[in-house]
Amino acid sequence: MAITDEAIERIKEMIVSGELRPGDRLPKEADLAGRLGLSRNSLREAVRALSLVRVLDVRQGDGTYVTSLQPELLLDAVSFLADFHRDDNLLHLLEVRRILEPAASAMAAQVMSDSAIEELGKVLEELHDDPDIDRLIAADLEFHRRIAAGSGNPVLASLIDNLSAPTVRARIWRGISQEGAAARTHEQHWAIFSAIRSRQPELARAWAAVHVAGVEEWLRQAV
């Protein structure tokens, strides 16, 4: 194991064990390096790496702190990396969405509140029957965001939110170039919503899988 990797592991162990908690300030660099048996340089590199993935917060002139470690904060790194994917690699993102979104839809059908389901339906009602592509994509993002939040699992919701945005360009491209894609998307949204509203988790799971797979299959042929 590289020295910097070892330093990262040692700091991670302190956080996982509860020795360092969210919001805690790390000991001074010299003290922490001596305590962990590391060079100050390797410790400094480890702190820099952990700050990039939002585990640590380096405050100039004040010290280094453990962040809140909230899922949405840590998963920003997923979104950052996903933004660099080429169109052919978007297939990998869509494959992950095809795994996660059906699960979120099934969970939402079981635990999403009635009021939240009503608001979900309003997202679709505002589009009417023949939405243009810009309004459809905006509604698509909001629709899936609300379902993910309605799953009751904040980690799952953050993952879906971070994986959804990088595929927007592909969804717009499909909506413009594939005949009937916009209408099919709108129809599938209604099918997912109806399954959630009627509290049928497996039906919601199936329709969500069909919905994401449609974009994935189109992109697979396109690239």
Automatic annotation (TrEMBL):
Pfam family, one: GntR
Keyword annotations of the record: DNA-binding, Transcription, Transcription regulation
The keyword Phosphoprotein appears for this protein: no
Signal peptide range: none
Molecular function as annotated in GO: DNA binding; DNA-binding transcription factor activity
HTH gntR-type domain residues: 1-69
Family matches, as PROSITE patterns: HTH_GNTR
Domain of life: Bacteria
PANTHER family reported for this sequence: TRANSCRIPTIONAL REGULATOR, GNTR FAMILY, UXU OPERON TRANSCRIPTIONAL REGULATOR
Name of the protein in question: GntR family transcriptional regulator
Organism of provenance: Planosporangium mesophilum
Lineage, uppermost ranks: Bacteria, Bacillati, Actinomycetota, Actinomycetes, Micromonosporales
